[in-house]
Design a protein that fits this description.
Elements: H1 3-15, E1 18-21, H2 28-38, E2 42-48, E3 51-56, H3 58-68
Antiparallel strand pairs: 1-3, 2-3
Helix pairs in contact: 1-3
């Protein structure tokens, strides 16, 4: 797991869902979101035009637990 993926998963685990703007998908945040989604660590769902909700999945929690121990 890459450091930025771990950071994102730790943030989501501590704070719950976050909202991310969808207007600029050429950022490090979006690259990380897409990497985590591809590995089924996060789920993305549109909450309104221009914003999506990011949630950690059970797979993400398990993977985070593995690298934390």
């Amino acid at each position: 797991m890459l450091p930025q993926q771990r950071l994102l998963l730790e943030l989501l685990s501590m704070s719950g869902d976050i909202a991310a703007p969808t207007d600029n998908k050429e950022t490090i945040l979006w690259r990380t979101l897409d990497e985590c989604k591809a590995k089924r660590r996060t789920e993305l769902s549109e909450i309104n035009p221009g914003m999506c909700r990011v949630s950690v999945t059970a797979v993400g929690r398990i993977d985070l637990e593995k690298v934390s121990s």
